[in-house]
From TrEMBL:
<feature type="domain" description="Probable transposase IS891/IS1136/IS1341">
    <location>
        <begin position="195"/>
        <end position="318"/>
    </location>
</feature>
<keyword id="KW-0862">Zinc</keyword>
<dbReference type="GO" id="GO:0032196">
    <property type="term" value="P:transposition"/>
</dbReference>
<dbReference type="Pfam" id="PF07282">
    <property type="entry name" value="Cas12f1-like_TNB"/>
</dbReference>
<protein>
    <submittedName>
        <fullName>Putative transposase</fullName>
    </submittedName>
</protein>
<feature type="domain" description="Cas12f1-like TNB">
    <location>
        <begin position="331"/>
        <end position="397"/>
    </location>
</feature>
<dbReference type="GO" id="GO:0003677">
    <property type="term" value="F:DNA binding"/>
</dbReference>
<dbReference type="GO" id="GO:0006310">
    <property type="term" value="P:DNA recombination"/>
</dbReference>
<dbReference type="InterPro" id="IPR001959">
    <property type="entry name" value="Transposase"/>
</dbReference>
<dbReference type="InterPro" id="IPR021027">
    <property type="entry name" value="Transposase_put_HTH"/>
</dbReference>
<keyword id="KW-0479">Metal-binding</keyword>
<keyword id="KW-0815">Transposition</keyword>
<dbReference type="Pfam" id="PF12323">
    <property type="entry name" value="HTH_OrfB_IS605"/>
</dbReference>
<feature type="compositionally biased region" description="Polar residues">
    <location>
        <begin position="409"/>
        <end position="420"/>
    </location>
</feature>
<comment type="similarity">
    <text>In the C-terminal section; belongs to the transposase 35 family.</text>
</comment>
<dbReference type="Pfam" id="PF01385">
    <property type="entry name" value="OrfB_IS605"/>
</dbReference>
<dbReference type="GO" id="GO:0046872">
    <property type="term" value="F:metal ion binding"/>
</dbReference>
Length: 462
């Protein structure tokens, strides 16, 4: 299967090379700002003319903002506005103009309603402190031949990597990967080179293709699986917070920048800021590593993974929970599982956003009207079933997908203990109207004990 994948390597450039990288990123920013000024002046001119009553053919013609026409305009103007342009690869300027074209396109699409989501504002000028980045799409870039410790970049040459490029080099040698572009970035005190690669991935199929796993994401534990497995929340950020607070105090004692008095920050203040940035990077790296390991394991084990369609962006607006939710990386985990499931040919099922996975009894299907966040154990009022809150939710999620593993348990356990009195469907009256739209399928719901038994067999067998 051909997929688009990024391979990112930390770089160890020499001082001269670092100067070259900075220069290219600066050139990217310069071209972006130049193009933005051009477009902005044109739009303002046209708006002003329209306000005077000039219309139609008398208006100043619009400046096109496709990457192609921006590049053409830049090539005509560069000799005059940037006589030093030949110091950098032309790709640097193209990169800035391409970014500008995308920004303008997104703004226009958002304005005309073609783009969903939060409103995209008109692009702003990039200041000195914006993140350094530059993209190469043509020219001599890629991995160094015959050695797995260097990347090749236009103009800059061979740059040593901090880690081996083996993972990508093997694919390139075998001819199963094609590098499409290279982006250099400066993040958290370190240079990176990220390759966008068209790669032929042949991932192993999930070990248990018939297995359905429900994953309840949370804060107390990172995830609870319907198999009963609990993945602890490593709380990387909470651990680092102590050091971050200390560094914050340290920075406060040093002379930082002040816009009113035009005070430049001291070297010591900058050092503390660099330490803070490094710590944040370490936290993010540790978190990402854990999430990658978990998501890979899930898609390589289970045939179907059932997740909640959580509104993470909305949950982060809750200021009491924001730090903890961001610290877990729920949205990132879902993103990883979704794209990796495509590689491993496992399937992801997203439960409806309003499906009450926590409030539903995984034994009888009764839905509670209210369940406090502090109640860690689920007690069913209908059948008296008691279970860990998150495990109950995970089992409900797994039950949303028609169970394929039913055959694994003997049918006799279908109706043994804990059958609710009367018609189990009657319990639906306890569901708050308009809140529950997704629900376990009738089949899954009518045989809850069989499913649980299936889960139990699975967990004991493994
Ligand atoms: Zn129940």
């Amino acid at each position: 299967m051909i997929v688009l994948q990024a391979f990112r390597f930390a770089l160890d450039p020499t001082t001269a090379q670092e100067g070259g990288l900075r220069s290219h990123c600066g050139a990217q920013r310069y071209a972006y700002n130049w193009g933005l000024a051009l477009i902005k002046a044109n739009l303002d001119q046209r708006r002003a003319e329209a306000s005077y009553g000039i219309a139609g053919v008398d208006l100043t013609p619009p400046v096109a903002w496709s990457p192609y026409s921006l590049r053409r305009d830049w090539n005509q103007a560069k000799e005059a506005v940037a006589p030093w342009w030949s110091e950098n690869s032309k790709e640097a300027y193209s990169s800035g103009l391409a970014n500008l074209a995308t920004a303008l396109k997104n703004w226009n699409a958002s304005k005309t309603g073609k783009r969903k989501g939060t409103r995209v504002r008109f692009p702003t000028f990039k200041g000195k402190r914006t993140a350094l980045s530059c993209r190469f799409t043509t020219g001599a870039f890629g991995l160094a031949e015959g050695d797995r410790r260097h990347v090749k970049l236009p103009r800059i040459g061979l740059v040593r990597t901090h880690e081996s490029t083996r993972k990508l080099a093997r694919h390139v040698d075998r001819g199963t990967a094609r590098i499409r572009s290279a982006t250099v970035t400066y993040r958290g005190g370190r240079w990176f080179c990220s390759f966008s690669v068209e790669i032929d991935r042949r991932d192993p199929a999930p070990g248990r293709p018939d297995s359905v796993v429900g994953v309840d994401l949370g804060i107390k534990s990172l995830a609870v699986l319907s198999t009963g497995e609990v993945i602890a929340n490593p709380r990387h950020l909470d651990v680092a917070l102590r050091d971050l607070r200390r560094l914050g105090r340290q920075a406060a004692r040093r002379i930082g920048p002040d816009r009113r008095t035009r005070q430049a920050p001291s070297g010591r203040w900058r050092k503390t800021q660099a330490r803070i940035a490094r710590l944040h990077t370490a936290v993010a790296n540790a978190r990402r590593d854990g999430l990658h390991k978990l998501s890979t394991r899930l898609v390589r084990t289970h045939g179907v993974i059932v997740l909640e369609d959580l509104h993470v962006a909305g949950m982060i607006r809750n200021r009491r929970l924001a730090r903890h939710i961001a610290g877990v990386g729920m949205g990132e985990l879902r993103r990883q599982i979704t794209y990796k499931s495509g590689w491993a040919s496992s399937r992801v099922h997203l439960a409806d956003r309003w499906y009450p996975s926590s409030k539903t009894c995984s034994a009888c299907g009764a839905v509670k009207a209210k369940l406090r966040l502090s109640e860690r154990t689920f007690h069913c009022d209908q059948c008296g079933y008691a279970l860990d809150r998150d495990l109950n939710a995970a089992r409900n999620l797994a039950a949303l997908v028609d169970e394929v593993t039913v055959g694994m348990s003997s049918p006799s356990c279908g109706a043994t203990q804990n059958e609710p009195d009367g018609n189990p469907r009657k319990t639906r009256t306890t569901r708050a109207p308009g809140t529950a739209t997704g629900r376990p399928s009738h089949k899954a719901r009518s045989t809850p004990h069989r499913e649980m038994a299936a889960h139990d067999t699975v967990s004991t067998a493994s």
